[in-house]
Design a protein that fits this description.
single chain; mainly alpha; 7 helices; 79% helix
C-alpha cells in the first residue's frame, strides 16, 4: 500500500472539502451582511437553497425536469422560513441554514432508505410540519440568539447598516409582494371580464341587419 500516496490524496480531498465549506460559509454570511442590498442577499439565498436541494436530495426520479423540480421545491421551502418569521423566531445566517439543511437531510435519508414513494407530497409534508415538530427547541434557540445578539450590539455600540432586515424578513416581504401582484392581476382579469360582458350586452342591444 502506498502510504505516502494515500496521505497526499487525503490531504487534497481535505483541502477541496475545506474550500467548498468556505464557499458555502461565504454564501451564508452574505445573508447576514445587512449592508448589502436586499436583492443581492435574496439572490444569494436562492442560489444557496437550490444548491442544497441539488446536493442533499435524490433527483433521479425527476429526469429532464430536475431543474424545474428543484426550483419548485426552493419556492416551497420558503414556507419554513416564513413559519419561523410568523412566530417571531428571527434565526438568520448559519442558524437558519442549519434548519434548512436539517429538513433536507431528513428527506434525503428517507429517499436513500427507499421510503419515499411519491416525492412531492412527502416533501411538502416534511416542510410544513418541521417548525411545529421542533417548536420547543427552535423557540429556545431563537431566544438565546436574540439575547446574545442584543448584548453584543449593545456592548460594541453599533447599529444596523443598510436596511437592517433579517433574511426571514426579506423573504416575508417578497412573499407579500408576490401575493399583492397576484391580487392585482386578478383585478385586471376582473376588469377585462367586465369589459367583455359590457361589450356583449351592448352588442345584444344593437339591431340585427337581415
Amino acid at each position: 500500500m502506498n502510504t505516502l500516496g494515500q496521505f497526499l490524496d487525503d490531504r487534497r480531498a481535505a483541502g477541496v472539502a475545506a474550500a467548498r465549506q468556505q464557499a458555502r460559509d461565504g454564501d451564508v454570511l452574505a445573508w447576514l451582511n445587512r449592508g448589502a442590498p436586499p436583492e443581492v442577499r435574496l439572490l444569494k439565498f436562492d442560489a444557496w437553497v437550490r444548491g442544497q436541494l441539488a446536493t442533499r436530495l435524490d433527483w433521479t426520479w425527476a429526469g429532464a425536469a430536475k431543474e424545474k423540480r428543484i426550483e419548485q421545491c426552493r419556492v416551497y421551502l420558503e414556507r419554513l422560513v416564513l413559519d419561523l418569521w410568523r412566530r417571531g423566531w428571527m434565526l438568520d445566517g448559519k442558524r437558519l441554514a442549519a434548519h434548512l439543511e436539517g429538513v433536507l437531510d431528513n428527506i434525503g435519508a428517507y429517499q436513500r432508505a427507499g421510503k419515499v414513494a411519491d416525492f412531492w407530497p412527502y416533501f411538502r409534508a416534511c416542510v410544513d410540519r418541521y417548525v411545529g415538530a421542533n417548536a420547543e427547541e427552535i423557540q429556545y434557540e431563537a431566544r438565546t440568539v436574540g439575547a446574545q445578539m442584543g448584548q453584543l450590539i449593545s456592548a460594541l455600540g453599533i447599529g444596523r447598516s443598510g436596511d437592517g432586515s433579517s433574511l426571514p424578513e426579506l423573504v416575508a416581504q417578497r412573499a407579500a409582494e408576490v401575493g399583492k401582484a397576484k391580487a392585482e392581476t386578478l383585478r385586471e382579469k376582473l376588469a377585462r371580464q367586465r369589459e367583455r360582458e359590457a361589450a356583449r350586452k351592448a352588442d345584444a342591444t344593437q339591431p340585427r341587419l337581415l
